[in-house]
Write a structure and sequence with these properties.
By secondary structure, this protein is an alpha/beta fold. It has 25 helices and 22 strands. The strands form five sheets. The chain has a seven-stranded parallel β-sheet with strand order 3-4-2-5-6-1-7, sandwiched between helices.
Length: 634
């Protein structure tokens, strides 16, 4: 079988051979064994499921929370002649049915799907008729309660196993502590423990912590000192725009990216950065997953992340081409205060959470015992204004209520625009009031999307803009104009969060939040905060060794590249120079009857070295100075 895997790799990807632990993982899942692969960012995770998917009979189901990654990989696979498709929010029911039917009848080899879709009745019904080769769980740490990015929707993966008990699981992640490694295998119901781990050591990546009171000036200094493509990570959407604008004002080309931008804007900015039209991407943690840009020379965290897992994954996007790169964390005393506040904001008291739950019911006028299955748009600003809350702890309270099974809280939906024609096809052909741009848009809509005369279709505005050669702002105005004239019905995209009640509304005093959901997760969160604080402050142990140790990998060799290692080298050099200065002073005293300070200062070493060497010898009572004379004490 190994030859078949290599043949597929060479045929579709053109690589001469596998690298790292790719072959081990592929052969393991190929033999039908549940497999966990730990591969750092840039380790080539996708090859480990795409290659065996083409060799094995049936469809490989890939579960991933990253919609952008789904779309990107489907496009690249199709370009290679590989049958791939994806199910995600924004696709119509008709499109989803068609994709699932293709999976059943052999028209799809690799199906990407978000974890939220696994529990839908439609998917589970169609799944029962599919021949599934194996199930891949990407970002597998999301299933672990001990992981830094736990997502309740991942827990439904274990239920899918019951529907397809013979399909082995391939779990993949770039960041997992030893506890998380065990938890992933338990929660996915591994028949036997089976882990393949690639070393997390990156020999070309220099980790640096800079303590700076003026972070922006330090950021500019670093970007001017290290040429090439860069990413700057910040904590908030507002900071994205502020830092990006300030960098442009400083002569460093930059753009920004966060989850609140529409997909067309995200695609445009990512594309410009990807093709080096813009040097620096300022972003929240929404940016980077699945982005394959090998020549990033520096990743800078201007705001401290709240876990070493997140930091390591984001920092690992630097230097994927194997050339020298830097991962820099800017830190000062203010960061510790902010990290401590995050603990309070992320885990408000249980009384506060119950209070938010009660006010949510008042907000939507839901009586006790009712509301199950109902979905509401959620305007967090209006809710907080009405009940005198702050948004961040409210957001945390809602997430804890979700983990407790009371609600589903979709805080960042990806709801594309929708279009349906109001005119019949015949009436459309008789139109005489459209200009060339409008005709271009109408023709493109009809070419790209089917069923527009009978139902709404979700549309990709960036795709239409690209096909028509019309910029996105102009396209939006054309669609609005066509809608106003009753030619189409255009529903612009909106990113309004929503809340669905999963249970009938309880009285707030009866809300139960388990020890596992609250106390254990809070304890884990505090532990992660303490670890990132310790990393930032520890300036005597090699940065790379600190990170490796956190992920359960011991390494007794220093990297020789991080700020700690370079500082130690500088200190050793300084000590050697001081020793040389001391020896030269004593030699001079041994060979001359009278030695003056002027004689000492004429020694061919820097003034700082001579001054420090003199002071050391005086402090140790080896020499004394009387007037201008230097005397050796015997």
């Amino acid at each position: 079988m190994a030859d078949k895997y290599l043949k597929v790799l060479q045929q579709y990807w053109g690589y001469p051979d596998f690298r790292g632990i790719q072959r081990n993982i592929i052969e393991s899942i190929g033999e039908g064994r549940d497999t966990l692969g730990l591969m750092p960012t840039g380790g080539g995770k996708s090859i480990t499921f795409q290659v065996p998917a083409l060799v094995k009979e049936g469809v490989c189901i890939v579960i991933t929370p990253l919609i952008a990654l789904m779309k990107d990989q489907v496009v690249h696979l199709c370009e290679r002649g590989i049958q791939a498709d994806a199910i995600y929010s924004g696709r119509t029911r008709q499109e989803i049915v068609q994709v699932l039917e293709n999976c059943i009848f052999g028209g799809v080899k690799i199906l990407y799907i978000s974890p939220e879709r696994l529990s839908s009745e439609l998917f589970q019904k169609k799944l029962s008729h599919m021949k599934v080769s194996f199930i891949t769980v990407d970002e597998a740490h999301c299933i672990s309660q001990w992981g830094y990015d736990f997502r309740p929707s991942y827990l439904s993966i274990a239920d899918i196993r019951k529907l397809k008990p013979d399909a082995p699981i391939l779990a993949l992640t770039a960041t997992a502590t030893p506890d998380v490694v065990e938890d992933i295998q338990d929660r996915l119901g591994f028949k036997d423990k089976n882990v393949f781990k690639m070393s997390f050591y990156r020999k070309n990546l220099a980790y640096v912590v800079r303590n700076s009171s003026d972070k922006f000036q330090e950021l500019v200094h670093i970007l001017r000192s290290v040429p090439g493509s860069s990413i700057v990570y910040v904590r908030s959407r507002k900071r994205c725009k502020e830092i990006s604008n300030a960098l442009n004002d400083s002569g460093i080309s930059a753009t920004f990216y966060h989850a609140g931008l529409d997909s067309a804007t995200k695609d445009e900015r990512q594309d410009k950065w990807q093709h080096d039209e813009v040097r620096t991407m300022v972003a929240t943690n929404a940016f980077g997953m699945g982005i394959d840009k090998p020549n990033v020379r520096v990743v800078i965290h201007i705001d401290c992340p709240d876990s070493l897992e997140a930091y390591f994954q984001e920092a690992g996007r630097a230097g994927r081409d194997g050339n020298k790169a830097y991962a820099v964390l800017l830190y000062n005393d203010g960061d510790q205060r902010k990290l401590e506040k995050r603990i309070v904001d992320s885990f408000p008291t249980k009384e506060y959470i119950a209070d938010v739950y009660e006010h949510l019911a008042y907000f939507y006028q839901i009586g006790i015992g009712s509301g199950k299955g109902r979905t509401f748009e959620f305007n967090i600003e209006k809710f907080c204004f009405t009940y005198k809350y702050f948004p961040i702890p409210v957001d945390s309270a809602l997430r804890i209520l979700e983990r407790s099974g009371y609600i589903h809280y979709e805080s960042d939906p990806d709801d594309n625009a929708r279009v349906m024609f109001k005119l019949t096809r015949e009436d459309l052909y008789c139109l005489r009031t459209t200009n060339p741009d409008e005709e271009n848009v109408i023709t493109t809509l009809l070419r790209l999307y089917g069923g527009l005369f009978t139902d709404y279709a979700y549309i990709d505005e960036s795709m239409i803009a690209m096909q028509t050669g019309i910029n996105k702002q102009q396209l939006y105005l054309i669609l609005k104009s066509l809608s106003n004239r009753k030619i189409i019905d255009f529903i612009p995209r909106k990113k309004i969060p929503y809340i669905t009640y999963l249970q009938r509304r309880e009285d707030g005093s009866n809300i139960f939040i388990s020890h596992e959901v609250y106390e254990e997760r809070k304890e884990q969160y505090i532990r992660r905060i303490r670890c990132i604080e310790a990393y930032a402050k520890n300036d005597h142990v090699c940065r790379s060794r600190q990170l490796l140790r956190y992920f359960g990998e011991e390494n007794d060799k220093d990297c020789k590249k991080c700020d700690v290692c370079l500082s130690n080298v500088s200190e050793n050099v300084q000590e050697n120079r001081l020793a040389t200065g001391r020896n030269r002073i004593i030699e001079l005293l041994d060979h001359k009857d009278e030695v003056t300070l002027q004689d000492i200062e004429s020694i061919d070493l820097s003034k700082d070295i001579i001054d420090n060497a003199l002071q050391q010898l005086i402090d140790e009572n080896i020499i004394a100075i009387k007037g201008t004379q230097v005397i050796l004490i015997h």
